[in-house]
Specification:
The structure holds two protein chains of two kinds. Chain A is mostly helical. Chain A has a single domain, classed as Orthogonal Bundle (ABC transporter involved in vitamin B12 uptake, BtuC). Chain A is built from twelve helices and two strands. Chain A has helices at about 20-45, 50-75, 85-100, 105-130, 135-150, 175-195, 195-205, 210-215, 220-245, 255-265, 275-295, 305-325, and strands spanning about 170, 175. Chain B is mainly α. Chain B has a domain at about 40-240 and about 255-265. Helix content of chain B is about 75%, strand content about 0%. Chain B has a two-stranded antiparallel ribbon with strand order 1-2. In chain B, helix 2 (about 10-25) runs parallel beside helix 13 (about 265-285), helix 9 (about 180-190) packs across helix 11 (about 205-230) and helix 12 (about 240-250) crosses helix 13 (about 265-285). Chain B is globular and about 90 Å long. The chains are: A mainly alpha, B mainly alpha. Chains A and B meet through helix 4, helix 5, helix 10 and helix 12 of A and helix 5, helix 6, helix 12 and helix 14 of B.
Chain lengths: ~325, ~350
C-alpha cells in the first residue's frame, strides 16, 4: 500500500550502494545458501529420511499446499492475500461431507464449485470496482462464518455416505493427498506459464493500468484468479474432510496465514506480478521441513510458529535487497 | 443540513443515530434495548474492540494496514498475566510496552526497507503469535489475582467500568492529539499524500513508526484489560477481532485510500457495531446474524470505497446508451426489418 517506493538520494546518505545486478546476486546467494543449509541440517537430523517422517512431511505439505497454490494466484494478481480461504476450506469440507450421497465425484464437484462461487464473487468485487482486497476478504470471512454457523447450528458434520476413503489411501506407496497436491501444482503451473490467462494474471499484477490499456479485461482476470483460488481451497477442504472423516468450521483455522507464509517464503512478490506455483511448492516444503526437523530434534512444538514467523519476516526483508534499484 | 449529516465528517455519527433508531423501532417499547444494563454491556464490548479499532484505523489513516493487532492483543494479555501476578500495574506496563515496541520495530522495518505494511505486519502477526505460544507453552494461563478482575468490571454509576473508562480515555487522548497538535496534522498529511508532505517538511518515516507504535500499544492495552477481566490469557489467536475492528474503523469514516478519518468517528463506528451486537442480542437475534450483519456492512463499504465504482457506473450508462443508439441506427438498415 506504500505508494512511493522510489528511493531519494540525500546528501547525508553515505551508505555504499550496490548496483541492481549485484543486489540480485547477493539475494540469490543468500537464498541458495539458506536452502543448502536447510537441506544439510535436515539430512543430518537422525530419522528425517525414515518413511514415517517423509509421509508426515508429505501430508503436512499437501493440505497447506493446495491452499497455498490457490493463494499464489491472488498474490500474483496484486491482491496481496485473502483472509477467508481458511473458512472457505472449512465450508467446502462441510459441503463435501453433506453431499456425499451424490457419489464421490458428485460431492467433489459440488465442493469445488462451492469454493469457486464463494471466491469468484469476491474476485468480481475486487476486479470490477477495485474494492480493497483485504477488506473484501474480511467481509467474506464474517459472512461465511455467520452463514455456516446459521446453517449447521455450530454442530459437527458427519459424512452423508461412505466412499471418501479414496482420498486418504495410498497409491503406489505415496499418500493420495500428496499425489493430488502434485497434480494441483502441475495444473497451476501450466495455467500460469502456458496460457494467455496466466500471462494476463502476471500483467495485471505487475501493472493494473498498463494491462487495462493494452486491452486485458482486468476484472475478468482477477475474478478468474480468485475462482482458481477457491477451487484449490475447496480441494484442500475435501482432502481434510476425508482425512478426519468429519468436519466443523475449525477445520481450516489458520490455513490462510500458513498459505500466505508459504507463498511469500517461496519468493512470490507481495506486490504482485512476479512468482509461480512452483516457488510456492518450494515455500511449503521449506516451512514443513523446518517444522519436521524442529520436532525431530526435540524442540517445543510452540517454537514452530515462532520460526515460521521469523522466516516470513526474513524472506520479505530479503526480497527488497534483490528488488530495489 | 442533510448534506452535512451525510458528509464524510458527520457520517459516522449519522450512522450511529440510525442504528439506535432502527433498534428502538424493533424494540417497540418493551424496554429490553433501552436499559442501563444494555448500555453497560455495549460499553464493555466497546472496551475490548475500541482500542484495537483505533490502532487499525490510525494505520489506515496513513494508508497502511496493521494486520498484527490480532496477535498483539493475545501476546500482551499473556505477558500481563505472566508478569502482573504481584502487581497488576507492572503487568499492564509490560504488556503495553511490548505492544509499543513491537509496533515500532515493524514501523522501522517498513520505513527503512520501504516495505509493504501488509507483508511486514503479516510476518509480525505470525512472529508475535509464535512468541505467545512459546511464552505460554500453548496453555491457557489463569490469572490468580481475582480482585483485579472484579475491580476492572465493577460498574461505576451503572454505566462505565474501569475498563470501558480506560478505553474511552484513550479515544479522548487520541482525538485531542489529532485535533490540536502538529502530530495530528502530520499524520493526516502523510496519509493524504506522502510525497507532498515529505517535500513540505513532514518527517513521514517518523510518523509511520509512531503510528504503528501507537497501534501496537492500543491493541496491547485492549488485550491486557481483557485478560485481566477474564482472569485468564490464552495463546489462541484472537483473529476474530480483525473483522469487527476493520468494520468499525471503516464505518467510523476511515478510508482505505488514506488521509480520511478521525478518532471520534472511529469511536462512533465502534459504538455502532457494539450497539448492533448488544441490541440485536437484547432483542433475541443469534450471534451468527451479528457476523452476517458485520460482513454485509464491510462488503458494502468496501465496494462504495472502491476507486472504480464511479467509473463503472458511468461506463455502464454510456454502454447502455451506446447499445441503444447502435440498435436504433441498425434497425432500418437490416434486411429483415424491410
Amino acid at each position: 500500500m506504500t505508494a512511493d517506493a522510489a528511493p531519494r538520494p540525500t546528501l547525508g546518505d553515505r551508505r555504499p550502494r550496490l548496483s541492481g545486478a549485484a543486489r540480485r546476486r547477493v539475494a540469490l546467494f543468500i537464498r541458495v545458501f539458506a536452502l543448502g543449509a536447510l537441506a544439510a541440517w535436515s539430512l543430518a537430523t537422525p530419522g528425517f529420511l525414515s518413511p514415517l517422517s517423509i509421509i508426515s512431511l508429505l501430508n503436512a505439505v499437501s493440505f497447506i499446499g493446495c491452499v497455498a497454490v490457490g493463494m499464489t494466484f491472488i498474490t500474483l494478481t496484486g491482491n496481496i492475500m485473502s483472509l477467508c480461504l481458511g473458512v472457505t476450506l472449512s465450508a467446502a469440507a462441510l459441503v463435501f461431507l453433506s453431499s456425499l450421497a451424490l457419489g464421490i465425484i458428485g460431492a467433489l464437484a459440488v465442493a469445488l464449485l462451492f469454493g469457486i462461487a464463494v471466491t469468484a464473487a469476491q474476485g468480481a468485487l475486487v476486479g470490477y470496482f477495485r474494492a480493497n482486497p483485504i477488506l473484501v476478504s474480511i467481509a467474506a470471512l464474517a459472512l461465511i462464518t455467520g452463514i455456516s454457523e446459521l446453517v449447521t447450528g455450530g454442530q459437527r458434520i458427519y459424512p452423508a455416505a461412505a466412499g471418501f476413503e479414496l482420498f486418504r489411501g495410498r497409491l503406489g506407496g505415496l499418500p493420495v493427498p500428496a499425489l493430488i497436491f502434485f497434480a494441483a501444482v502441475a495444473i497451476g503451473e501450466i495455467v500460469l506459464q502456458g496460457t494467455r490467462f496466466g500471462r494476463a494474471m502476471r500483467m495485471v499484477g505487475s501493472n493494473w493500468r498498463a494491462a487495462e490499456l493494452v486491452g486485458i479485461r482486468t476484472e475478468r482476470v482477477v475474478a478468474g484468479a480468485y475462482a482458481l483460488a477457491g477451487a484449490f481451497a475447496g480441494l484442500s477442504g475435501v482432502l481434510l474432510a476425508a482425512r478426519y472423516g468429519s468436519g466443523d468450521m475449525e477445520l481450516g483455522a489458520g490455513y490462510d496465514y500458513s498459505a500466505i507464509a508459504a507463498v511469500l517464503v517461496g519468493g512470490t512478490a507481495i506486490q504482485g506480478g512476479q512468482g509461480s506455483v512452483l516457488r510456492t511448492m518450494i515455500g511449503v516444503t521449506v516451512i514443513a521441513a523446518v517444522q519436521v526437523v524442529l520436532l525431530l530434534r526435540g524442540f517445543d512444538e510452540q517454537l514452530q510458529y515462532l520460526v515460521t514467523g521469523l522466516i516470513v519476516l526474513g524472506v520479505i526483508m530479503l526480497h527488497t535487497i534483490g528488488e530495489r534499484e | 443540513m442533510i448534506a452535512a449529516a451525510i458528509g464524510p465528517r458527520w457520517r459516522p455519527f449519522t450512522i450511529l443515530a440510525g442504528a439506535v433508531a432502527v433498534l428502538a423501532l424493533m424494540d417497540r417499547g418493551t424496554g429490553y434495548f433501552f436499559s442501563l444494563a444494555t448500555l453497560f454491556s455495549v460499553l464493555q464490548l466497546f472496551a475490548t474492540l475500541g482500542p484495537v479499532a483505533l490502532g487499525l484505523g490510525l494505520s489506515m489513516l496513513v494508508r497502511e494496514f496493521d494486520l498484527s493487532v490480532a496477535s498483539m492483543m493475545s501476546l500482551a494479555g499473556c505477558i500481563a498475566v505472566l508478569t502482573g501476578v504481584g502487581s497488576p500495574a507492572l503487568g499492564l506496563l509490560c504488556g503495553v510496552a511490548a505492544g509499543l515496541g513491537a509496533g515500532a520495530i515493524q514501523g522501522v522495518i517498513m520505513t527503512r526497507l520501504r516495505l509493504n505494511s501488509v507483508g511486514v505486519t503479516l510476518g509480525g502477526l505470525l512472529t508475535l503469535q509464535g512468541i505467545t505460544y512459546v511464552l505460554t507453552a500453548n496453555q491457557t494461563i489463569a490469572y490468580p489475582n481475582l480482585p483485579v478482575a472484579l475491580a476492572l468490571n465493577r460498574p461505576i454509576l451503572h454505566l462505565l467500568s474501569v475498563r470501558s473508562a480506560a478505553a474511552l480515555a484513550v479515544f479522548v487522548l487520541a482525538a485531542l492529539v489529532m485535533a490540536w497538535t502538529r502530530i495530528g496534522r502530520d499524520v493526516v498529511a502523510t496519509g493524504s499524500d506522502r510525497r507532498a508532505s515529505r517535500v513540505a517538511g513532514v518527517k513521514t518515516d517518523r510518523v509511520i513508526i509512531g503510528v504503528f507504535a501507537a497501534s501496537g500499544a492500543c491493541a496491547a492495552l485492549a488485550g491486557v484489560l481483557l485478560s485481566y477481566s477474564l482472569g485468564a490469557a490464552s495463546p489462541v489467536a484472537l483473529s476474530d477481532v480483525l473483522a469487527p475492528a476493520a468494520a468499525a474503523a471503516i464505518v467510523g469514516g476511515v478510508s482505505v485510500v488514506g488521509g480520511r478519518g478521525h478518532p471520534l468517528g472511529i469511536a462512533a463506528g465502534v459504538l455502532t457495531l457494539c450497539i448492533l451486537r448488544s441490541g440485536l442480542s437484547a432483542i433475541g437475534v443469534t450471534p451468527p446474524v451479528h457476523e452476517i450483519v458485520t460482513g454485509a456492512i464491510l462488503a458494502a463499504i468496501a465496494v462504495l470505497d472502491g476507486p472504480d465504482l464511479a467509473r463503472r457506473l458511468v461506463t455502464w450508462r454510456l454502454d447502455r446508451a451506446e447499445r441503444r443508439a447502435t440498435a436504433a441506427a441498425a434497425r432500418p438498415l437490416s434486411p429483415k426489418a424491410r
